[in-house]
Amino acid sequence: MKVIAEVKRRSPSRGEINAELDPATRAREYERGGAAAISVLTEPSHFAGSEEDLVHVRAAVEVPLLRKDFIIDEMQIIEARAWGASAVLLIARALPEADLLALAQAARDWEVEPLIEVRSREELDAALRAQPRVVGVNSRNLETLEVDARAVDRLLPHVPHGIVAIAESGMQSVADVERAAQAGADAVLIGSSLSSSGNAESAVRTLIGVRRRGR
Fold first, then answer.
1. Helices 23-33 and 200-207 meet at what angle, rounded to 10?
2. Is 95 part of a structural domain of the chain?
3. Long-range CB contacts (< 8 A, 24+ apart) of 68-72?
4. 152 within domain boundaries
5. Using CA atoms in the order 97, 103, 106, 110, what is the torsion angle rounded to 10 degrees?
6. Where does the pLDDT of residue 214 fall: very low under 50, low under 70, confident under 90, or very high at 90 and above?
7. What's 103's domain CATH number?
8. Burial 157-194 (b: 16+ CB within 10 A, else e)
9. Residue 145 has pLDDT above 80, yes or no
10. Which end of the chain is more exposed for a tag (fewer CB within 10 A), N or C?
């Protein structure tokens, strides 16, 4: 399994996770552990992120970077590229379908990969109309902040072959990653448990030992 390791100081669901986290140092630990990519939160109000975090991580590592934020305007995609991001997160639930399709195309025009996040079959259908190469299934309800692990089981089998499928949220252990693999995930995005880990390099290395099953 591929692991997208996230740099995260806090979250609405967990509160403080690692207030003193240094993004560049943690990113280097992730990379040494074998992370395939690194997610960097740039949203300041709820996640204590910043553009500087992304810039510093870009200078520290070679792996692809995801700018994780609430992207609603093409200017944010342009910023992401300027700050060193390889991909941006587009949340299907947060965007009218016309905007989702337009932003996905804008990202490709700016040579930034759109990762489209869904948590229902309707959102997945809309995401697929944007012709993505990467889709994420988020187990967390963004309104209630509750995690429904069954969302991955329900939706991942419907992601077509040839599209990278990522399981997101609520995963902390090898058993969680194994469940995502069983459902057909190609990768997992893990933030809180890795950001709070005392040995992030070892934690990532353990998770990438899980065998991918395919869909």
1. 40
2. yes
3. 68/6, 68/39, 68/40, 68/41, 68/42, 68/43, 69/41, 69/42, 69/43, 70/43, 70/94, 71/103, 72/99, 72/103
4. yes
5. -150
6. confident
7. 3.20.20.70
8. ebbeeebbbbbbbbbeeeebbbbbbebbbbbbbbbbbb
9. no
10. C
Taking phi over 0 as left and psi of -120 to 50 as alpha, with beta for the rest, 5 belongs to beta
Catalytic residues: 6, 8, 68, 117, 138, 168-169
Are the beta carbons of 52 and 21 closer than 8 angstroms?
no
Residue 212 domain-assigned (yes or no):
no
Does residue 215 sit within a domain? no
Predicted TM-score of the model (pTM): 0.92
Note down the domain range covering 147.
Answer: 2-207
Say whether pLDDT at 36 is over 90.
yes
DSSP-assigned beta bridge partners for residue 135: 116, 165
Domain count, the chain: 1
Confidence class for position 16, pLDDT limits 50, 70, 90: confident
The predicted pLDDT at position 19 comes to 77
Instruction: Tell me the CB-side half-sphere exposure of residue 91, using CA atoms within 13 A.
Output: 14
